[in-house]
Write a structure and sequence with these properties.
single chain, 9 strands, mainly beta
C-alpha cells in the first residue's frame, strides 16, 4: 500500500527475515546501490503476513511459512527528493524448499516489471553491506524473542 502527495510518500510494507545455514536472503534492484530484505507492499484488506506468502511466490516462485513476527517498524526517511513515512511488519519466515534459491549466486526475480536480484549473504558479512534500514545490520544476528517496536527518524 502506497500513497503519494507531492514530495511525500506513505508506505505499508511487509518484510521477510529468511535465515538458512548462517545466511540471510537479501535482494536489490540490479542497478541499485543498497540491499534490503524481501517483501512488498500490503494490499487493501490483506493481512501483512499473507503479503509475504504472496510476494515470495510472485517474486521467486517459492512457497513460504511465517514463523512469527519480529519487529514493527515506523521509519521516516528521504530518498531521491521524496520524504517517506514507512510502516513495516517484519516476520521470521522459512522457505518450504530453501535450496530452490542457490547459494553463491544472484537469482533474478520473476516479476517482469521489476529488475531485482536475490542473494544469500552470510550473516557475518551483513554489517559491511549497504543494507536498509540500517538497524538490520546489528539486529539480524540477534533476533528478538518477542515483537519489538522500532522508531527510526532519518529526517532530523
Amino acid at each position: 500500500m502506497k500513497f503519494e502527495s507531492g514530495d511525500k510518500r506513505f508506505k505499508f510494507r511487509s518484510v521477510a527475515v529468511i535465515i538458512h545455514n548462517g545466511h540471510v536472503l537479501l535482494h536489490k534492484v540490479v542497478k541499485g546501490d543498497f540491499w534490503a530484505l524481501p517483501g512488498g507492499k500490503v494490499e487493501f484488506f490483506e493481512f501483512s503476513h499473507t503479503t509475504l506468502i504472496r510476494e515470495l511466490e510472485e517474486e521467486l516462485g517459492v512457497a513460504a511459512n511465517i514463523v512469527r513476527p519480529l519487529w514493527f517498524v515506523e521509519d521516516f526517511y528521504a530518498r531521491g527528493g521524496v520524504k517517506s513515512h514507512e510502516i513495516a511488519t517484519y516476520y521470521l519466515t522459512t522457505l518450504q524448499d530453501p535450496n530452490a534459491i542457490p547459494f553463491g549466486q544472484d537469482v533474478r526475480g520473476l516479476e517482469q516489471d521489476v529488475n531485482i536480484v536475490f542473494r544469500w549473504v552470510k550473516l557475518a558479512d551483513v554489517a559491511s553491506l549497504n543494507l536498509w534500514p540500517q538497524f538490520l545490520k546489528e539486529r539480524l544476528t540477534a533476533l528478538p524473542q518477542e515483537v519489538e517496536f522500532i522508531h527510526i527518524n532519518e529526517l532530523k
